[in-house]
Amino acid sequence: MSTSKEDEDYQVFLHPTQVQTLWDHVCERLKIDLGDALYTSWIAPLKVISYDGRCLNLAASSRFMKDRIQTQHGEKLLGLCYEIFPNFEDYTIAVRQEIINKSEHAEVARVDPFQNESIAGEELGDDYAAALDTRFTFENFVIGKPNELAYAAALRIAEADVPPFNPLFLYGGVGLGKTHLMHAIAWQIRKTHPSKRVIYMSAEKFMYEFVLALRFKTTVAFKERFRKVDILMIDDVQFISGKNTTQEEFFHTFNALVDNNRQVIISADKSPSDLEDMEERLISRLGWGLVADIHPTTYELRLGILQSKVEALKIKIPADVLEFLAVRISSNIRELEGALNRVVAHSTLVGRRIDLDTTQDVLRDLLRSNDRRVVTVEDIQQKVCDYYNVKLSDLLSTRRAQAISKPRQVAMYLCKVLTSKSLPEIGRRFGGRDHTTVMHAVKRVEEAMETIREYSNDVNVLRRSLML
Ligand code: ADP
Ligand code: MG
Question: pTM (2 decimals)?
Answer without folding.
Answer: 0.61
